[in-house]
Amino acid sequence: MEIDRAITGSSDQRLRTKYRNATYVIERAFALYQFEEVAFSFNGGKDSTVLLHLLRAGYYLHKEKTDQSYKNQLDGKLKCPIRTIYFESPSAFPEINSFTYETATTYDLQLDIIRLDFKSGLEALMKEKPTKAIFLGTRIGDPNAVGQEQFSPSSPGWPPFMRVNPILDWSYRDVWAFLLTCKVRYCSLYDKGYTSIGSIYDTVPNSLLCTGHSPDSNENFKPAYLLADGRLERAGRAKKFTSECGSASEISNGLNYVDPHRTSSLTASIICVGDEILFGTIEDKLAAALCKKLHSIGWMVVHVAVVRNDIDCVAEEIERRKSTDDMVILFGGVGPLHSDVSVAGVAKAFGVRVAPDEEFEEHLRHLIGNHCIGDRNEMALLPEGITNCCTMRSCMCR
Asked: Which of 17, 266, 341, 375 is most buried, judged by most C-beta within 10 A?
């Protein structure tokens, strides 16, 4: 089977490990549920494309173990005729729709097209076709991933089914390493600078991939797999707000230029963590510099606070600000020392755990090489599911 051969023949040890873990989850699901009882949620994006080919590989490995005659029946392009759910939306990119339908034909996916919202669509579908488990391309950095495990029951109030998340622990780098190693087809938008695709109303090419020429043409963006920092894959998601005249407009997400006439729509708070500032032993100058810089790019700072080196104090201040402001900037108290509590405070405010971030650890290793050991590794512990954390002694969260 070509996917299995491509990965097992790769020199990328990390990718091979991720592949083995993901296919184990898939094989486990196929062992727990009848094939007719499982479904696959496909949206045409890079993550679900990875999952499609992992399902093909996992299906092959499962059948190889349970049916001795199966291996001899295979051709080079194994298909996996799994029931596939596609939520079609009028706001989807035409390229996403085309890619989805062509992929379904290529791999014999039994496509169920739903034109309702996710919850209502699932309720209607499961009345018609009872389903016990659904494979999802959720990764830990996704907004809805917090608290999920590789096998997670659906949330209260939703139709009962098991969410199966084989690539939950995969990073942006892992996704592209898999796609490029296996040489499988993916949506063409990723070659035009799109790194995270939503709807036509909230997705633009990632400005970090702009070649420096006019950003008005997709031809002036490098492909998605060249994004250096995978934590910024959602930098192409534009944010919406309603103007005074009531019409919806798109604005930058804070990483690109923001029209200074729209400053009233973007608010930020700054939180400094440090007993030494409260004791008066040092003077805080960074907050003033941040206020000046933020104002120059279109943000209005509405609140500046200094809190103690205490997890609860940090969490309480973030709790107060995160629901009212577009951005909260936190600095101080981030690091491997016992007094550095900011990361734990952010995690507590968002109700998540602190967990190792592989991409950030790689970044640290790039900066300090073999010195990335012991206490320094603790710098790679970040709030789980919160991906827009900045390097060194500062942390930015929404």
From this structure: 341
